[in-house]
Amino acid sequence: MNPYLLVVILGIVEGITEFLPVSSTGHMILVEKFINSPYVSKDFMDNFLIIVQLGAILSVVLYFWKDIQPFVKSKEIFKERVSLWSKIIVGVLPAAVLGLLFDDYITEFFLGNTKIVATTLIFYGVIFCFIEEKIKKVKVIDNIKNIPYSLAIIIGFFQCLAMIPGTSRSGATIIGSLLLGLSKGVAAEFSFFLAIPTMMGATLLKLVKNGVSFTPIEWQLLGIGFFISFIVAFIVIKWFMGYIKTRTFKLFGIYRIILGILVFLFLN
Fold this sequence. Notes:
Blueprint: H1 3-17, H2 24-34, H3 42-63, H4 65-68, H5 75-109, H6 114-134, H7 149-160, H8 169-179, H9 184-210, H10 216-246, H11 250-267
Helix pairs in contact: 1-2, 1-3, 1-10, 3-9, 3-10, 5-7, 5-9, 6-8, 6-11, 7-8, 8-9
């Protein structure tokens, strides 16, 4: 496959799946199984799959900028922003510690394993099909500033489940948030906020380990993938935040189950 077409496809897949509870890593692994290009090296592709996430991260920053940026005139709002980012940092700590400890192990034994991807797709798909029925009696936290630090760190541990490919970082944090009493909107929003330092840290860790050395053409490919993932992810975030106001997560659960079954049938 032409390398430019390949990075366009991967950029679109990353942008669509990064913040939906369907597992972007799982999808990227599956796409790689179906398509490849003799014109790009494996080392470049490994780095590309990491760097392209930065485009999606930037889309979160831009979409929620007015809610997270510290440049405000009101002291009260500034204190709220400091409190929010303090909770985000607390929520990221579990992933930061466990990621540093187990990154090599997970990369060696789990990454690229289609059986694990299929299993986690189906397992969490089933949970998404039924979770909202099970939490109707849970007291709802409907404002992100009301999230206590104790819940922030527990949600952070739920996020660590996504170290296993096919789980979905947003899916794990949303499930954890719903079980702990956050409303759907607040659960999704906090999941997006946690993504900013989590994904930036994970990307930096991978780049430090893998090194960064690209040809001019490879820099072009990286730029195209980055830009496409940014545009697509921004559109998806806007759609998703509107979708969950009136709809359930069951559709994502059904999609995950069907995809997981197809992976078992055709890739194992």
